[in-house]
Amino acid sequence: MTKVHAPARRLSRLYLHACKQKSKSRKGSAAKSAVSGLILVAKACGNDVPRLTFWLSNSVVLRAIISKSFGENQFPISVGAAVGMKDDRNWNKKSLSLQWGSVSSRGIASAIEENFSDWENPLIFSAALEKVEAWIFSRIIESIWWQTFTPHMQSGVANEICTSMSSDSIKFYGRTSSSGDQQLEKFSSELWKKAFRDAYERICPVQAGGHECGCLPVLSRLIMEQCVARLDVAMFNAILRESANEIPTDPVADPISDVEVLPIPAGKASFGAGAQLKNAIGNWSRWLTDLFGIDDDDLLQDENSSDATEDDERKCNDASMKSFRLLNALSDLMMLPKDMLLSRTVRKEV
User: What superkingdom does the record give (predicted)?
Assistant: First the structure.
């Protein structure tokens, strides 16, 4: 951790030294230079996710150091604020839902230049760092999505994974096998297990290699939560197509062109399909917990530790961040006993 966050410590020393000089211009210049430097190195990273994660972690730590130096009461900043959340000790999951590409990589420097003027104020320095972090965060998500997840939704990568399996696996997981839905589920499970692993290696190759890394572990989990939420939407839209031959309509919200990467056939709603989907979601959630620590049980523990006045709001926020929320709801609907639909209340809820 000492080596990973060396840039953050050096920038903080530069800024705090300028603050001791009692010169507002020097203090403002140090803050502005630090923000400009972070933007410059982040742009130089291109779509290299490990390097972007490195600088995101350093920006968060820099802001935490400045916060601690000026006192938390006067200058409240948290790690969670880097991605639009409230205090990381009391996460507001609902506010995490960033707009995709909400911060333009082309105009980040000019936007900060236009919106921030009083650089002598530490709060302005913090706000500018927060904007930079949100911009880097969105770039990481976009890179992970298009470099890792989207290719696994196309026929080419799926076929490569098929051919890379052993002969026995190909026979069992074969996409043209006559055994049907069970083979489809097994193939989809192997495909997405590989996708999650590839994303893990792309975000932090050091941790993926089994070594300890000094970067903030919470960042990789927050990045993956956003990608999983987007994958949830993509699969939900693909499963709801009327037939497997239907063409995708939206390259962002409906990008799956090969329906055989789905855990259940598209356009077929039944109790068996719902149970199959629920089983697949359970497997994916366990893999995500092992890799990133994304665990729905943590959300329930947070609820129990919160104050009674915040209980209802927290339940709403936690429910919105549950992994594969749409697919879970769809599987519950498919598994609904038909005789329950005789109840007007149940029909209204459905």
Answer: Eukaryota
